[in-house]
Amino acid sequence: MRSTEVFTYDVTAKAGFDYTDASRTLIFNEGQRTATFELFIHDLDTVPEGIETLRLEMRDLVGTLRGEIDVATVFIEDDDGN
Questions:
Q1: CATH number reported for the structural domain that contains residue 43 in this entry
Q2: Could you give the number of structural domains in the chain?
Q3: What is the pLDDT of residue 59?
Q4: Domain limits at 64?
Q5: Which of the residues in the chain have pLDDT under 50?
Q6: What residues contact 28, with CB distance under 8 A and at least 6 apart?
């Protein structure tokens, strides 16, 4: 079994306002190469802000190969004021 801790970090998007913090542990069963989880995007803004970003980071990789991608940027497209 493999696992990793996934954390969300604000860049220009703000947790609790633009998205719900999705930090958690992902478990990979034997032979499983991918895992998914939901990231809830909020539609609370009424003023146009442009594209906002947040960062996903995986840490404490247990049983995984070194060199795998461990950081990703999430882009939230602007639909404010619509």
A1: 2.60.40.2030
A2: 1
A3: 81
A4: 2-76
A5: none
A6: 1, 2, 3, 4, 35, 63, 64
